[in-house]
Amino acid sequence: MKILILGGDGYIGWPTAMKLSAAGHDVTVADNYMRRNIMRDTDCEALFAVPNLHGRAARWKEVSGHTVEVRVGDLNSWDFIDQLFADTMPDTIIHYAEQPSAPYSMLDRRAADLTLRNNLGVTFNTIQAMNAHVPDAHLVKLGTMGEYGTPNIDIEEGWLEVEHKGRKDKFLFPRAAGSLYHTTKVLDTDLLWFYVRVWGLRVTDLMQGPVYGLATDETGDDDQLMSFLNYDEMFGTVLNRFMVQAVAGYPLTVYGKGGQTRGYLHLRDALQCVKLAVENPAGAGELRVLNQFVETFSVNDLAGHVQESGARLGLDVTIKSLPNPRKEMEEHYYNPVHTGLLDLGLKPNPLTAEVMDDMMGLILRYKDQIVKERIFRGVQWKR
After folding, report:
1. Best CA proximity match to 338, nearest among 148, 144, 157, 206
2. Is domain 2-374 annotated with CATH 3.40.50.12780?
3. What is the average per-residue pLDDT within 240-252?
4. Known catalytic residue: 144?
5. pLDDT at 224
6. Nearest-angstrom CA–CA distance, 260 and 333
């Protein structure tokens, strides 16, 4: 297939480009380096530097023989995205091109405005460009399990059948986002559902849980091919943050009671899920929703895994409970369905002791590059 990856410089975007080009697809990536710019402006640089997209693509071709085409520009600009679609005419579009940080979206008005305008604007432009150039193409949109919140009922896979006053119908599962970032994802879903109904687009919306890890089948041990590993409060996912904190001798930052439970998966499994969605497209006029995670853990569970791995590796890892800066339930029911990707062939890789120790070992290689001042900023949801 001809595949266009929007947000191809991101934590998952670049590994996706390697995965799909290695599988024989014709891959183009587009990005405007917004995440890199925000990381620089907020002093939230990753654990180690990675090349820009041109450098990444050149290194990938050198080691694999596969080509990834690079386009740099703002997908919120209609002129750029219109020309991009006209040039590439993709069979599949993978949309990662959003400001991905919940804490950053709650930082201040400027950050909130950027998040809202970019995320909704790029999704809208993508829909319009598809309809203008490739109306039969398949859009794989990265959503988030955070759209659902933590309802006191089982979370279904995107849809909910409701019986009310003797009548039945099927609706998108109720959303209760916990940050402005997650709210933009809810609005994405609503936009997509509208245009699926009106224009008959084919869309897969992947409700992804937090991702951890760095090395993939394609990167091997080559840090020039690896993605960003953020460990700061803004862009670092919780398990990645905890692992760096453990290596740095910084107490693990558990918010409140630590009972917050979510669905998690390794970066390798995130790529496996996206590849399955790409190679098994939704039908015309279908909004297919897939809950994308492998296991559920509480924050306390994750802290325990890191502490146990640290002990095996000779690290003295401590855990510290902090006042929760977020507005969220710290103890709650959580039982989401996630059978769709398993039915497509997902082979889950659980978080074993071996996987933990391998990830911790990789971070130990970069111990001297950790800047402790970047770890915690105390961004408050409520002012």
Report:
1. 157
2. no
3. 98
4. yes
5. 95
6. 9
Within 8 A by CB and 6+ apart from 279, the residues are none
Give, to the nearest 10 degrees, the angle between helix 13-22 and helix 267-279: 60
What token pair was written down for 244? 């760096």
- Please give the structure tokens belonging to residue 167: 């009548």
CA 296 – CA 274 distance, rounded (Å): 19
User: Catalytic site residue 181?
Assistant: yes
What residue ranges do the domains of the chain occupy? 2-374
Is 383's pLDDT higher than 80? no
Work out the burial of residue 37: count CB atoms within 10 Å of its CB; fewer than 13 is exposed, 13-18 middle, 19 or more buried: exposed
Helix (H, G, I), strand (E, B) or coil at 266: strand
Kindly name the residue from 148, 181, 231, 334 that is annotated as catalytic.
181
Whether residue 141 lies in the annotated active site? no
Catalytic residue among 42, 144, 219, 253: 144
Task: Name the catalytic one among 88, 115, 184, 185.
Answer: 185
Angle at 43 between CA 37 and CA 45, to 5 degrees: 70
pTM, 2 dp: 0.97
